[in-house]
Specification:
heterotrimer; A alpha/beta; B alpha+beta; C mainly beta; A: five-stranded parallel beta sheet; about 20% strand; globular; CheW-lke_dom (chain B)
Chain lengths: ~120, ~675, ~170
């Protein structure tokens, strides 16, 4: 069974690239279009990794991460966030909310897959 | 296949973001302090920058980054949102569109100019008002590893919530082991007693001795996501091999950082207000052509179903009849669902006019307020697409010719602000879109002079007010004494009228001198399937769109005879002209004994159509006529009947016009 | 119409090839050929719906697999007498390019013969004079035995539909 990854982004193009990269590396990918959608899908399914944008309508990534970490079922699921800000502020806020790691935009498929492998472990 | 190209997807997405940003900016003009809108605009710019950088639109990303920065200051309350700033961002947004459409064009000069304007408006020092189309910094690139195998002692302790937050310590150990050979020792000294143990907390620390040919950077990379919150000491061990690299620093990592209090400063979820929330409902994006294909299939199904109904109707088999009824119901429902799928709110069309009016106001120096009503009214998407250009022209026209300059308005006792009201509402099977202004109204003298000059009418020809107004829809007619920059562009009123008629719609104008004008478009909600009245003329079947049918009458033989040569019938004290379709279609057949008259109307004008027989209601899947029949104006399309034969659909607008002409001729003849 | 344009039409249809794959059919005793590649389907006669007001050359429409397409009568273009339909009558559905857009048209024929190959060597441009047909309506004549096969220039015929008065 390949790992199942949930990607959450309001940008269709980023979702598509992420999906192409991850499915290309053999992962199974489910997409969500914003934080709320992500939260609902995460709760409805079993995911090995969640890759999420932070800046999104309806529910931003930070709130989604917080909400997920509050539910016992999603403790321990790695959550990687996408960020364009290289400033420490956003990172520490996301980490404080419970994120596992991050990837800085722009990234390429290789970088994303590398990080997915890293947090998914063996 | 294009839909699988991320760049194409990005372009589509960028177009949506532009719309979102623009809507936000224009909303902001109404309430410059609306934080939710400011956030939405910021988010749009932010996403544009992020996605742009992902797909190689580097100039766009760099430029947008500066706009985002300026807007971020507004968001954080450091500078107030002002109309100038909004205008500057609107201009900048147009430039972004150019950066998306021609990413490799020479945009530097424009970029710099716009940014300077933007920064001036945002009260920023213009020191860094230059944009370099350089790529944004890439994610941390590992430095080339240092030479030789080195030994490190790594002691680390992850934050207590690391596991809960998705960090897998075993994964980190695996990664370290991949760097070289190592020995691992766990430190269990701080593990609490069982009763105090939270299973998700992490209390174990580790010490590793690692021999690796990679550098310190590689070790830091392993801990990259937890570095700031963990205790980590890395010390270089005495060289295990004779050759020692002395230059490496043995500096320990920064002092352990206290565990960050989780959730303490995390922001509260932004309560998405209902307005924004509704717009963001979960959507599936489907290429339009797939919808059209589906529509075709549904159309064929409806046709096949009506064949089945006919068969079943003439059969005694009750099982067949039952199935046929089921299929009829299902295909009807499917058709309705399909119709709904194709419906989009008019609001998506109205949105762009706010920008147009904003620009027009700046260009003309007029003070204009655009009001929109009924944005949620839904219309077939093809209708929306085709109406866009005509509506742009009508709105331009209202602003340009209708509304007066502020001082002229004040002089005539009006408010300084001119109003343009764009509204949509559904009425039966039609949507009625009106463009109304409170300007000076149509200048009849000028219309007449113009029409006479261009030979549209004879000098001094008697015309009703409505006929006079309708002249502005004639090809080549333009009321502007001088064609201004605004109305000179785009389509003319005749094209507007043609487009509306091609959509089987009707255009009407009302205008009161000094008070304003109102142009209304009545368009059928859908183009693909209509309810029709199936009639027989001679041996041919024809469909009359039911929405145009007012009533059906018997045409008694006496009436028929009496009206010979006059072709009028008295209907509730009104004389209604009528057309004998048998004659119009040259069927060469004798009339049926009991002919019927179908009275159809467009707006206020009516005409009777004499047919041989009324067959009944017919669900009509509209097929367009071939190019080779474009010269035939009597029919707007064709449809396929249950028996597989083709029936032509009457063009109501055309027939009413023919009837009215006939009336005019007869009137003229006395 | 001059020699040059006729020559051009001739070259156009052969397009540098030595052979042309065509469908042959007859109409009032003459044999016509249409490039096989343009032929979509051969149908038995279908009920036609007359389009009042249309030019006699394309006086009606049929239901071709759920699409409404016009039926053309080439006889009108070549000034031939109308004849009664027979048991051999067929409709040949062809795809034409008109004003840059594809357009399906049914062509009424008395009888469809075969798909065959015509050699360029037997072809010649239509004579400019001495023919009772408009030379620009014909791409090329191909000699077969003692007779000619006519390759009509459908694009020209359909874009200059004979007007009503000419009928």
């Amino acid at each position: 069974m390949s790992a199942h990854i949930l990607t959450v982004d309001d940008s269709a193009s980023i979702r598509m690239t992420t999906k192409i990269a991850l499915t290309g590396a053999g992962y199974q990918v489910t997409e969500a279009v914003d934080g709320l959608d992500g939260l609902n899908k995460a709760k409805a399914g079993q995911f090995d990794l969640i890759v999420t944008d932070l800046n999104m309508p309806n529910m931003n990534g930070l709130s989604m991460i917080e909400a997920l970490r509050k539910s016992a079922a999603h403790m321990g699921v790695p959550i990687i966030f996408l960020t364009t800000e290289s400033d420490a502020d956003m990172k520490s806020r996301a980490k404080a909310a419970g994120a596992t790691g991050w990837i800085t935009k722009p990234f390429d498929a290789e970088q994303l897959v590398k990080i997915a492998k890293k947090v998914l472990g063996k | 296949m294009t839909s699988l190209d991320p760049i194409q997807v990005f372009r589509t997405e960028a177009a949506e973001l532009f719309e979102q940003i623009e809507t936000g900016l224009l909303d902001l003009l109404n309430d410059l302090s609306d934080q939710a809108t400011i956030d939405a605009v910021f988010r749009g710019l932010h996403t544009l920058k992020g996605s742009g950088s992902m797909f190689g639109f580097e100039a766009l990303a760099a430029f947008t980054h500066h706009c985002e920065t300026a807007f971020d200051r507004v968001r954080k309350g450091q500078v107030p949102a002002t109309a100038e700033l909004v205008a500057a961002v609107l201009d900048a947004q147009d430039h972004m569109k150019a950066l998306v459409s021609t990413p490799n064009g020479d945009h530097e000069e424009a970029s710099n100019r716009l940014l300077a304007a933007l920064q001036a408006a945002a009260g920023e020092p213009s020191a860094h008002a230059t944009v370099v189309a350089a790529p944004l910094p890439k994610a941390v690139a590992a430095e080339p590893s240092k030479t030789g195998g080195k030994g490190f002692r790594i002691t680390f302790r992850l934050p207590v919530n690391a596991m809960a937050n998705g960090t897998n310590p075993l994964g980190l150990l695996d990664e370290l082991q991949e760097l070289g050979s190592c020995t691992v020792k766990a430190d269990l000294s701080t593990v609490p007693t069982l009763d105090a143990l939270e299973p998700t907390d992490l209390h174990i620390g580790w010490t590793l001795d690692l021999i690796t040919d990679k550098g310190r950077d590689a070790i830091d990379d392993v801990f990259i996501f937890v570095m700031d919150d963990m205790e980590l000491t890395v010390t270089e061990l005495a060289p295990p091999a004779p050759a020692a690299a002395q230059e490496a620093s043995a500096a320990a990592a920064p002092a352990p950082v206290a565990e960050v209090a989780a959730k303490a400063d995390a922001p509260k979820a932004q309560a998405a207000d209902a307005k924004h929330g509704a717009k963001q409902a979960e959507n599936v994006r489907v290429p339009a052509e797939r919808l059209d294909e589906l529509m075709d299939r549904v159309g064929e199904l409806v046709i096949a179903q009506s064949r089945l109904s006919q068969l079943a109707g003439s059969s005694a088999d009750i099982h067949l009849r039952a199935v046929s009824e089921d299929v009829e119901r299902l295909s009807g429902e499917l058709r309705d669902t399909m119709m709904v799928l194709r419906m989009v709110p008019v609001g998506s069309l109205f949105g762009r006019f706010r920008r147009l009016v904003h620009d027009l106001a700046r260009e003309t120096g007029k003070v204009i307020e655009l009001e929109t009503e009924g944005e949620t009214t839904e219309v077939d998407k093809t209708v929306i697409e085709r109406l866009a250009d005509p509506l742009v022209h009508l709105v331009r026209n209202s602003v340009d010719h209708g509304l007066e300059p502020p001082d002229e308005r004040v002089a005539s006792g009006k408010e300084k602000t001119g109003r343009v009201i764009l509204s949509a509402r559904q009425s039966g099977g039609e949507v009625i879109i009106t463009i109304k202004d409170d300007g000076r109204g149509v200048n009849r003298e000028r219309v007449r002079a113009k029409a006479e000059a261009s030979g549209l009418i004879q000098p001094g020809q008697m015309l009703t007010d409505q006929e006079l107004l309708q002249l502005i829809f004639q090809p080549g007619f333009s009321t502007a004494a001088q064609v201004t920059n605004l109305s000179g562009r785009g389509v003319g009123m005749d094209v507007v009228k043609k487009t509306v008629e091609a959509l089987r719609g009707i255009i009407d104008i009302r205008s009161e001198p000094g008070r304003g004008s109102e142009i209304s478009l009545r368009i059928p909600l859908t183009l693909a399937i209509i309810d029709g009245l199936l009639v027989r003329v001679g041996s041919g079947s024809y469909v009359i769109p039911l929405s145009a049918v007012e009533e059906c009458l018997e045409l008694s033989l006496e009436d028929d005879l009496r009206s010979r040569g006059r072709s009028f019938i008295s209907l509730r004290d009104n004389l209604v002209p009528f057309l004998r379709l048998r004659e119009l279609f040259e069927t060469g057949t004798p009339p049926d004994r009991y002919q019927k008259m179908v009275v159809i109307s467009t707006g206020d004008e009516r005409v009777g159509l004499v047919v041989d027989q009324i067959i009944g209601d017919h669900q009509t899947v509209i097929k367009s006529m071939s190019k080779l029949h474009h010269d035939v104006v009597t029919f707007s399309g064709a449809t396929i009947l249950g028996d597989g034969n083709v029936a032509l659909i009457l063009d109501v607008t055309h027939l009413v016009a023919v009837g009215q002409q006939q009336e005019a001729h007869l009137r003229a003849a006395g | 119409m001059n020699v040059e344009t006729v020559k051009h039409a001739f070259d156009h249809v052969w397009n540098g090839q030595d052979e042309l794959s065509v469908l042959t059919f007859s109409l009032n005793g003459e044999t016509f050929a249409i490039e096989a590649i343009n032929v979509q389907e051969i149908l038995d006669l279908l009920p036609e719906t007359r389009v009042p007001g249309a030019k006699p050359f394309v006086a009606g429409v049929i239901n071709f697999r759920g699409r409404v397409i016009p039926i053309a009568d080439l006889r009108r273009a070549f000034g031939m007498e109308a004849t009664e339909a027979t048991i051999d009558s067929r409709i040949v559905v062809v795809e034409l390019t008109l004003d840059g857009e594809p357009c399906l048209v049914g062509i009424r024929t008395d009888k469809v013969h075969e798909v065959t190959t015509l050699p360029r060597s037997a072809g010649e441009p239509p004579p400019i004079v001495g023919m009772r047909w408009r030379p620009d309506f014909i791409h090329c004549l191909v000699r077969r035995g003692s007779d000619f096969v006519i390759i009509p220039n459908l694009e020209v015929i359909f874009s200059t539909q004979p007007a009503r008065a000419a009928a």
